[in-house]
Amino acid sequence: FLMLLICVLAAFISIWSAALGDEAKHNFEWRGADLRDALRHVGRVYGVNIVLDASIKGEVTMTLNSVTCEMAIQYLARSNGFNYRRIDDSYIVGNEATLKANYDVTTTKVIRIYYADAKSISQSISVVVPSDKVKVDSTTNSLVVNGTPLEHENIQEIIRLLDVKAPQIAIEARLEEMSADAKNEFGIQASVGGQISWDVTGVKLPD
């Protein structure tokens, strides 16, 4: 469980670290360029993910000097009547109605945790959704989460990794071969059928 949690946290830390690259500034110039190509080019320059809605189309003629990643995406999107949403190091570009429907509308879901502790899981998903949107139902070992469709999708992925049945470890006790004198010294008696008994009267205790 601990290793899985570390892996999940490491993945999100790497996302946040990559997002720091948004502070870098670059220059761009487009002349009659395809809007989709221009947006993808920005993503490659800054090393971020660009998700384009099917409605994205158009041409762009624009010169941008010393702009951050978000500024470039904002100018490109809004100059063509589109908008965007930023989620970690990803930018989703599309029409406002689609963005609102998929990324702004929140729903509340009850998520049953079967193997792990719901309280521990709630701490793990805090990297995806604010803790004030998550409530723990200790009685049913469930989580009550309010979030956007994308947040719910990410939460389900984290729970899939962490809510796993703990492997059962069989511990086998084995009696190593001992000489007859040693067995007598410690009062070990073996009977037919493989049963072992201890004769406390035969154990030599230290003075």
Sheet/helix structural class: alpha+beta
Order of helices and strands: HEHEEHEEHEHEEHHEE
Strand order of the largest sheet: 2-5-4
Q: Major sheet: size, sense and barrel closure?
A: 3 strands, mixed
Overview of this structure, please?
By secondary structure, the chain is an alpha+beta fold. Among the domains are: 19-103, Phage tail protein beta-alpha-beta fold, CATH 3.55.50; 106-162, Ribosomal Protein S8, Chain: A, domain 1. 37% of the residues lie in helices and 26% in strands. It has seven helices and ten strands. The protein has helices at 2-19, 35-46, 69-78, 96-104, 118-124, 149-162, 180-186, and strands spanning 26-34, 49-52, 59-67, 83-87, 90-94, 107-112, 134-137, 142-147, 188-190, 196-198. The strands form four sheets. A three-stranded mixed sheet has the order 2-5-4. Strands 6-8-7 form a three-stranded antiparallel sheet. Strands 1-3 form a two-stranded antiparallel sheet. α2 packs antiparallel against α3 (69-78). Residues 15-22 and 191-203 have low confidence and may be disordered.
